[in-house]
Amino acid sequence: MQIPLVDLKRQYQAIKPQIDEAISKVISDTAFVGGKYVRSFEERFASFCGVKHCIGVGNGTDALYLALKALGVGPEDEVAVPANSFIATSEAVTMTGARVAFVDMDPETHNMDPNRLEDILKERDARTSRRCFKAVIPVHLYGRPADMDSILEIARRYGLRVIEDAAQAHGASYKGRPVGSLGDLACFSFYPGKNLGAYGDGGAVVTEDAELAKRVRDARRPWPAGEVQSRGGGGEQPPRRAPGCDPGGQAEASPFVDREAEAKRRPLQAVPPGERPQDPGGDE
Ligand SMILES: Cc1ncc(COP(=O)(O)O)c(C=O)c1O
C-alpha cells in the first residue's frame, strides 16, 4: 500500500467548492498577476504574521533573493545559512553573488546552532576577510522555530541583519510570537505541498519595516501601485496582439485575431512615411 507524503487531490476534494469559486473569480476578473486578490491576501497574511507589510512574490526562493537584495547583499558580502536546509536557502544567497557560510546544526533541534554561528563570526573577525558578513538566515526547519533569541543577540553584536526562512513554518510561534515577526524580514513559500500551499507557485516576504517593504515591492515587478494586472483591461477587451508577430502560425488558432485587419495588412515599408501609424505606447 502506498501512502503519499502529501495528498493534494484529497485535500482539494475536501474544499472543492471554495477553491473552484475562488479560482473562477480570479479568472472572471482577469486578475492573473497581482491585483485585488493578491492585495487582500497580503493584508491578511501580514496580520497573521503579526507584521505591517507583506509582499507576494513568485515563490519562496524569490522571496529570499528579494529580501537579500533589499538589505543590499551583493558580491562583496557573506551570508550565514544553516548547513541543514532545503537548497533554496543557500541558492538565493549565491544568486546575489554573495558567498554562503554554512553553519552547523544543533543535533537536538536540527536547526542552526547559535554557538557555531558565533564561532564562524569570531574566526572571520580574526582573519579579516575581504568579504563582510551582512546577514544570517535562520531556517525554521519542519515548522520548528530556530533559537531566535540567541541568533538575534549574536546578529546585533556583529552587525548582521536577520532574514527568517519560514518556508516550512507558516503558523508556528516562538515564545508566543509568530514566526515572520522576529527578524528584519521573513520569507515564506506557498509551494503546493507546503503548510499553506497555493494552487501554483507562490511566496511572500513579510516585514515590519516600511522601507524594506518598499524595496521588495519595487524590485518584485514594475507594477503600477494598486492596478489589477490584466492585459485584457479588466475583462472588456481581448489581449492585443502585435500584427505580424506570429511566425509560428498560432494566430490561426486564436479566436482574438481580427482576420479582416490581418488580410488588409501591408508591410510597413509599403506604407508612405506620412501614413504610418503611431506607436500606441501600450504594454504588449
Ligand atoms: C526551507 C525552505 N526555504 C526555501 C524554500 C523555497 O521555496 P520555493 O520552493 O517556493 O521556491 C523551500 C521550499 O521547499 C524550503 O523548504
Mean pLDDT: 86
> What level of helicity do the residues show?
25-40%
**Unreliable segments of 5+ consecutive residues:** 227-249
Radius of gyration: 24 Å
Q: Which percent range describes the beta-strand content?
A: 5-15%
Q: Strand arrangement, largest sheet?
A: 1-9-8-5-4-2-3
> What number of domains?
2
CATH architecture of the largest domain: 3-Layer(aba) Sandwich
Bound molecules: pyridoxal-5'-phosphate
Instruction: Give the name of the CATH superfamily of the largest domain.
Output: Type I PLP-dependent aspartate aminotransferase-like (Major domain)
Oligomerization status of the protein chains: single chain
CATH fold-level label of the largest domain: Aspartate Aminotransferase, domain 2
Name the structural class: alpha/beta
Number of strands: 9
Shape: globular
Count helical runs.
9
Please describe what this structure looks like.
The protein contains nine helices and nine strands. The chain has 284 residues and is of the alpha/beta class. It has two domains: 8-220, Type I PLP-dependent aspartate aminotransferase-like (Major domain) (Aspartate Aminotransferase, domain 2, 3-Layer(aba) Sandwich); 241-272, no CATH class. The strands form two sheets. The protein has a seven-stranded mixed beta sheet with strand order 1-9-8-5-4-2-3, with helices on both faces. Strand 6 and strand 7 form a beta hairpin. The longest helix is centred in the N-terminal third of the chain and has 14 residues, at 36-49. The radius of gyration is 24 Å and the shape is globular. It starts with 7 loop residues before the first helix and ends in a 20-residue tail after the last helix. The relative contact order is 0.15. The structure holds pyridoxal-5'-phosphate. Pyridoxal-5'-phosphate binds at residues 59-61, 85-86, 88-89, 139, 165, 167-168, 189, 191, 203.
